[in-house]
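hi! just following up on the protien thing from before. the input was this:
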Amino acid sequence: MVFPWVAAAVAASAVGSALINRSATNRASDAAESAANANAQVNREIYNQTRSDLSPYRDVGSAAVSQLGTRVLGPTAAPATGGGPATGGGSTASPSGPDWNAYLQANPDVMREFQEESAKADPNSPAFRQHGLQSPETFAQWHYQTYGQNEGRQLPQTQSTPAQPTTPADPNAPPPAQTGAGGTPTDLMTATRPDAQPAPTFERPGTQPPPDYTRPDQGVSPEFVRPDQGVAPEFVRPDQPDFTFDQSAPSFSSYFDPNNIQADPGYQFRLKEGMRGVNQGYGARGLLKSGGALKAFNNYAQEAASQEFQAAFDRAMRRYSADQAQFNTDRGFSRNVFESDRNNLNNNFASDRTYGRNVFENDRNNLNDNFESDRGYGRSVFESDRNNLNNNFESDRSYGTNLWADQRDFANTNFNLDRNYATDAYRWGVNRSDNVFDTDRGYQTQRYDQQTADMFNLTNIGQNAAAGTASAGNVYAQNTIANNNNRANTTANAAIANANNFTNAAGQVAQAAGMYYGGRMY
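and the predicted 3d structure came back as:
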């Protein structure tokens, strides 16, 4: 007998296994899809980079084809997109082509994308140049070639401008004698022999008058005024105060008061103890109330009072004597300090008065000495400056007169030299041989042939670049087709694997059901 839970476990296991296999198959399919997308992106970037790398060579080849057409067939046969220097004309024409700035203006989203990508991209990474992030124009070109063309976006074209006469800056250009009016190079292959120019004329330079010199002003000797001598300082003797002592002499009455003897604690203690001794002595004999006891009490009290009075008086006298001696000492010290300060004040006054008068006399003497020294120095400087002024005047006048004479002689000498040189140059130009003209014409013809050969070489470079671009496009197309086929095969295999998994799961569920129902029959 088969238990129901056994059949259920078999069915659940089959379904779970099918789901797990399906999930694994889907993950594998997604991984293959991601790899295919990555491969497609890499192929696209390689193709775009190849087109970008070969673009300058294609442009050079196209320009060379246009110039060859103009040179061989004439200006009317030049392509609309070509341009270059016209043979013998010295002019250039601006060719028409893609206007990437206009493309950016017509598509603001492209400009925003450039700003966002260039802000977060690494300038040193390969993708920076592959995506054209060097400038807005290069990014516009990459965007159009990658997305814009497929999206049907319009690419504005620049308008061609007519050729304008120019003078090429060619280091191998013919010499100035072989150029026509306006600086345009002469075509010596079709030119006629140059005519002789008129003979130059020379005029002797005018003679300048000799320079005139005026003696400078001699100036006036400086005046010096003796400075004010000043007034001797006055000194006032300081105030002489009288001696005062702010303390009072001690009074004996403040040290001893007879009325305070009985209130003294020592007196009270001795009287109490003595009276207790007398009381005990007479009490022991039973004579406490006798006349002898009363007399003994009275005598002890008087004797104790007399002794304590003398002792208190002696203590007060000792304190008073000590304080009186300290008072006399303090007053003597204060008087000595007062006398010392007053003597110092008077001594300082006398010293300061003497020092002040000496400083005044010294300053006045220095002032007078400096005045005499400055007056002598100022007059010496004035005389020296006046002599230098006169000497410089004489020197400058002699130098200027000699320079004028030298310049006059130099001008006359140069006039004769220049006239002779120009006359010789004119005669050389008039007598210029036919060989020189033929040599220049042959040189220009050789340069024309060399330029034509260079254009053919550039045309070959452009053809090779175009072939390389086409080859890169074929490789990109083949890789894309193979990539799409692999992606389709992966998706189909995943679908077939999922179907087989669920078919197997269904068979196992059916088998479990058969087991369950077959077991119930028994």
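Confidence is low (pLDDT under 50) at residues 77-93, 165-169, 171-177.
The longest helix spans residues 291-430.
cheers
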